[in-house]
Design goal:
Length: 161
């Protein structure tokens, strides 16, 4: 395997690269192992009202405000985690939870430690249009569709003025 689970400071455990990855390379393939009736502490959102719990190491990926991974839906009803940039051996692998989560039940403190850290994990619905456009290729398909619909509505409103 090209990744390992190890201690990640205040975050508990994290997933780390054991080799270099190039931008666009699939780093981790997540497979759904459970389909809970609602969100759980370890689930990711794959559609409106639908969450899955993935196998390890995907389920152990931490959040980062400056992620090195994005998501692509895969054939196992979960996500592939794809390198957003070149990744060095030894780097912690992380994605922005807003790439899969429309909303959160309660605010979550962020301890990613990046220079871009916002101090709290913010879901997709709290992200501005600029963030959504910059990350459109790397977010869950159901969120991408919601972004396109919102953009289309906004254009129609502006055209009526």
């Amino acid at each position: 395997m090209d990744v390992e689970v190890a201690t990640a400071g205040a975050k508990g455990h994290g997933v780390f690269a054991l080799r270099e990855f190039v931008r666009g390379e699939t780093v981790i393939v997540g497979k759904a192992i459970d389909h809970p009736s609602g969100r759980t502490r370890m689930s990711v959102q794959v559609d409106w009202g639908r969450h899955v719990e993935m196998d390890a190491p995907a389920t152990l990926l931490n959040h980062s405000c400056a992620p090195n991974l994005g998501v692509h839906e895969n054939e196992w009803r979960a996500y592939d985690f794809v390198a957003l940039r070149d990744i060095l051996s030894g780097e912690e692998l992380a994605f922005d939870y807003a790439m899969t989560e429309h909303s959160l039940v309660a605010p979550l403190s962020c301890c990613c430690g990046s220079a871009d850290c916002q101090g709290e994990i913010r879901p997709w619905r709290e992200r501005d249009e600029e963030w959504r456009e910059q990350n459109a290729e790397w977010i869950a398909p159901y969120l991408r569709a919601a972004s396109a619909l919102a953009t289309d509505r906004r254009r129609r409103r502006l055209a009526r003025r």
